[in-house]
Design goal:
The protein has 211 residues and is mainly alpha-helical. The protein has 9 helices and no strands. Helix 4 packs antiparallel against helix 7 and helix 7 runs antiparallel to helix 8. The chain is globular. The termini are far apart.
């Protein structure tokens, strides 16, 4: 699920930090697939899947559309959240698709350092906000808009970076249950969408002016 439902036990203070759980999964012998990720992190599998799939497009590097497969998967999962699903459903081919050596061997180990840094400086703030009945659908909608912004950004423009980063920060906020971080993610993603729209409008007006 995306967040803790009412009636579910609140995590204990001595619960293993998310960064340690992620590192354990990363070093484990199981295939590095979405299926194994869902099995280990089933309580917040949506948010963790969003986080890992959108890390690569969030990097300030031109991907040239290579990450579109990840973005399409995230969009499908967002629609599932909005529809009210509490568990991840994906076609078997996608569930057992390897996340790739670049993501699991380079990107995730690097992002682990940032996650640990955030864990040391963040604490659950307004935790109950995440367990409101409509929150999964709302957060699914926010993630959907930001992911669409990244998907529709022109290739090699770098405009997919901020919307993708917005998804990453929002996902981390859900995992760490920090409303302040959630607001920061919304601002980052919205800024990215705004830049994409502004640039698209400018290009259209220039094209219209010449023709």
């Amino acid at each position: 699920m995306l967040c803790y439902d009412e009636g579910m036990p609140v995590p204990k203070k001595d619960e293993q930090p998310f960064s340690d759980q992620l590192e354990k999964w990363l070093k484990g012998r199981q295939p590095k697939t979405l299926a194994s990720l869902d099995k280990v992190f089933e309580d917040k599998s949506f948010a963790i899947t969003f986080l890992l799939l959108m890390i690569l497009p969030a990097l300030p590097l031109p991907t040239g559309g290579v990450t579109h497969v990840f973005e399409v998967i995230v969009i499908l999962l967002c629609l599932e959240l909005i529809a009210g699903r509490q568990t991840i459903w994906l076609p078997e081919k996608w569930k057992h698709m390897s996340l790739g050596k670049t993501l699991t061997g380079k990107v995730i180990p690097t992002i682990l350092k940032w996650i640990r840094w955030l864990e040391q400086r963040s604490s659950p703030r307004w935790r109950r906000f995440f367990s409101l009945p409509l929150m999964p659908r709302l957060l699914g909608l926010i993630t959907l808009l930001f992911t669409l912004g990244a998907l529709l950004a022109p290739p090699f423009s770098g405009l997919d970076t901020l919307p993708s980063l917005g998804v990453v920060v929002v996902s981390l906020a859900i995992i760490l249950e920090d409303v302040i971080m959630l607001l920061a993610g919304v601002v980052i993603g919205a800024t990215g969408i705004g830049l994409t729209i502004a640039l698209g409008t400018a290009v259209f007006e220039s094209f219209h002016h010449f023709f």
